[in-house]
Structures are given as structure tokens and as C-alpha cells.
Amino acid sequence: xxxxxLYRDVILDHNRRPRxxxxxxxxxxxxxxxxxxxxxxxxxxxxxxxxxISDIRFExxxxxxxxxxxxxMTEAVKGRTRGAALELFARVHQLLTDDAAPAAxxxxxxxxxxxxxxxxxxxxxxxxxxxxxxxxxxxxxxASLPAVSTx
Length: 151
Ligand code: ZN
What we know:
This protein is an alpha+beta fold. The protein is built from four helices and three strands, in the order H-E-E-E-H-H-H.
């Protein structure tokens, strides 16, 4: 099986059966994200255990890329610390936008998003959930610095 076929199958699978999809009771943060270029909407909720993301779920509707990306993201960041999750965001952002991106295999299943690089208009579909995660993490961080644009 070609790598591109494998990546496409991961996207299709996570779009059809999104992981961590649904409501989350007693969340510590609930943040909405919207991508006007495509119409993707999502609400991200998370629970923190001190500095660690102990649970994360999302709801909403959007294109296959945005849904699959949110599903893959929730799997990837659950159990990570705030800092580790933001570090992962930086690497995913690079994967989506930079041809000289680091080895995709280090990112595990998130590497499936690398094909989006060929379609610049879809980058926001894939990065919406990550921008939303970054604001959710900032909103739960007692030592939060003033918001920095991640564009
Ligand atoms: Zn989209």
C-alpha cells in the first residue's frame, strides 16, 4: 500500500468514526473554533489535572479534513502536559505548511495530515482544532501570558 493511500485511509477513518467526539461534563475549558473559509465549526472541551490534559472531547461539524484533524489531535494530546501539547502544535503546524518539515513519522498518525500541504486552502481546516486547543490551554493556565498569535 502506498504511503499516500495509508494517509488517506487514516483521514477517512477518523472522519467516519471521530474519536473523543461528544460532550464532556464538568470541563475546565470550553472553546469554540470557526473557520470561515470552509465553514468548519467545533467546540473543544478539556479537563486538566494540574498541568496535564486528563480528558478532551470535541463536537461540531465541518469538512472531512477538519473532523479527522480534530479526532487525531484529541488522541495525540490526551495525557500530555500543556507544554508538550503546544510543542506538538508547533510541529504539526510546520508539517502542514513547511516543505522542509521534520520527519513525518515522528508524528505518528498525525503524519496523515501531511497531504494537506499540497492544498494551501485546506491548511486552516486542519489547523482549526489546534488553534482552538491553544486558546483552551491558555484559558486554563493560571500563569498565562498575554495571548500570542499562532498564525
Ligand atoms: Zn474545512
